[in-house]
User: What shape does this take?
Amino acid sequence: MRAARLWGTEDVRVGEEATPIPADGESLVQVRAVGLCGSDLHWFTDGGIGDATIEDPLVPGHEVSGIALDGPYAGRVVAIDPAIPCEECERCREGNPNLCPHVRFSGHGSVTAACVRSWRGPPTVSSRSPRGPRPTRGPS
Assistant: This one.
């Protein structure tokens, strides 16, 4: 699959990478649309955000939608929340994953975001779209 990685300040390279294989409890999403936001621009122009800097090539783009290829939303259009809670801490167990103190974010540090053809991650961060809308284009 093709993926865009940010290697350093203003250094984006598109190349071929292996299609991710979902681990237990993860789903695979065929990426169809990606948005780049202010944090992606900071990674690109400044090489980091605050005290976090690019140490390894980073896949940006954490506003994403696509088609779930497996899992509970298989075949449906989904939007992916870039916040990935631990699902093990007290806050997560209480049903408040948005307050997770161990949350990781797609496109930050070593967590791959969505400037890729296929994204893997927990289905809990996906939300299905109403029936009907289908993305018409994907990344090329």
User: Anything to note?
Assistant: The chain is about 10% helix and 35% strand. The first strand starts at residue 2 and ends at 8.
